[in-house]
Write a structure and sequence with these properties.
Layout lengths: L2 H10 L29 H20 L2 H6 L1 E9 L3 E4 H15 L3 E14 L2 E14 L2 E16 L2 E11 L16 E2 L8 E6 L9 E6 L8 E9 L6 E24 L4 E5 L6 E16 L5 E9 L3 E12 L11 H4 L4 H5 L20
Parallel strand pairs: 1-6
Antiparallel strand pairs: 1-2, 3-4, 4-5, 5-6, 7-10, 8-9, 9-15, 10-14, 11-12, 11-13, 11-14, 11-15
Length: 363
Amino acid sequence: MRKSIRHSLSLVIIALGIGAAQAQTSSSLPDHRNGSPTDSRKPVTAEVERALHDFYDAVSRGDEATALRFIADDGFSYDASRGYSSGGEAKADIKTMLRFTKGKVSYDLSDLKAISVGPDTVMVNYRLLTKQIQDAREQSRLSGVTDLLVRRAGRWQILGEHHSLLPKPVEPLVPGLPAGWRRTPGGTADRYSISVDTTVRHGGKGSASIKFNCGDEQAAWASLGQPIAADEYRAMRVRLSGWLKTSDVDGSGLWMRVDGDRHILGFDNMDNRAVRGTTDWTMYSVVLDVPENAKNIFFGILLVGKGQVWADDLSLEVVDKNVLTTNLDSPEDLGVDNPDVARRPKETNKRPVNLGFEEGVIR
């Protein structure tokens, strides 16, 4: 299993307990440190962000005169569905759109980042969520936008713009997942189906299945997981065990992670002993220490690349300290201060649920 996948999973697991992919909802500016040359650009960045909000607000309200003042006549824009447009063509498009969308469309900017490339020129990149009421139903689309803005006569205008649609974020909780389990949101998780399989199973009535469906398998992966509070396992060594069956997989395995208040305290996803190819039901395990300062424990099943993996009859148990740990992170990795870990709340569930995948599916 590729090392890059291991580190990607280490970061994305944090999102297991969050109701939506956090990248789709955050809004922030770069965190400049004291003494950075970019500190002086903060006022300009704030001006540009405010100008963009004013532009989209004018479009939403149907205020044609205000909206058009933000478009440079000598500029251009690119949209995959329409190709290149001049500044004049962009203005004409806005006029046409406003005849039909006044009061029916809204815009939400997030994750804005800005770079000053001159005293009156700024490059910005942001996510734009567009919501529109059509036939009494709300439709939405998420775009990635890059704008080149220039300040002329004290007013910011869009000189160049590139629009591209972004795929909808993968929801961690979707119908058909095993009850009590979540999929890790990620850019490639939508290439996989995760379900309860009642025909292929190790024991009981069903197993959990992760199957690659379509798209580019390179750097693709998906995970099924579950978070619990670490309270009842602190100062103990725990072992996650489970039965896996695979069909033509590039890499698969169990994974577990232990978080503190600000640091990752332990992590293993079987990167150094991944299950590959086609295999019958086999027992695997990962073992980690849960320190006294542990806050949460995450665990689950992982599939990297193509193929299909089934998991069944998992267990999470305390083991003797004579059982060797399988932690893959170095002391340097574990010592890194992680803001995402700090933002994660403490889980309310204290013990695992539905480890045999017998309790139905999320509906």
